[in-house]
Design a protein that fits this description.
The protein is mainly beta. It has 1 helix and 11 strands. Helix content is 9%, strand content 31%. The N terminus and C terminus are likely disordered.
């Protein structure tokens, strides 16, 4: 096989591969993303977040928060704290669409955005896009979601 033939074979093999988001993702690991982090003088937002797959790791916990945080306060360093509506998917469900609500001082769900979620077995990944408003921010949780008495992740 010539070098040209080998390069063509490699190129066509790479094109045929499906992108595995469970391997190729960005990490969100800052402690100030936690749903129970309240610091009114430290407001942040995700307006410059690039559309991509993300995993909550390290000090940020295990997964996206999946309940409305208490109203009237900041949560995860944001006035618009983002939380997942609905349950996290099982591995068998593959990539699913879910809504994210952004909590404000007056409402648990003042704005909604649609994202993708995938269960990678030991962790979840999320295809996130930048929220339209600032200070809206995706919040995380240190508590893995429990379904029917068993850990889902």
């Amino acid at each position: 096989m010539s070098n040209v033939e080998a390069k063509i074979l490699l190129f066509t093999t790479e094109i045929g591969k499906e992108h595995d988001a469970c391997i190729d993702y960005n990490e969100l690991s800052s402690f100030d993303r936690l749903e129970d982090f309240f610091e009114p003088n430290m407001l942040k937002c995700d307006e410059e977040l690039k559309s991509s797959w993300y995993r909550f790791t390290g000090d940020a916990g295990f997964q996206m928060a999946n309940k409305c945080m208490r109203t009237g306060d900041t949560a995860c360093s944001a006035l618009g704290a983002g939380w997942l509506v609905g349950s996290h998917p099982t591995i068998e469900e593959g990539v699913v669409s879910r809504g994210v609500c952004f909590r404000t001082r007056s409402s648990c769900c003042s704005s909604t955005i649609n994202i993708k979620v995938k269960n990678c077995g030991q962790y979840m990944i999320y295809y996130l896009i930048a929220p339209e408003n600032c200070p809206y921010r995706y919040c995380s949780s240190k508590h893995p979601q429990i379904i029917k008495g068993t850990r889902q992740i």
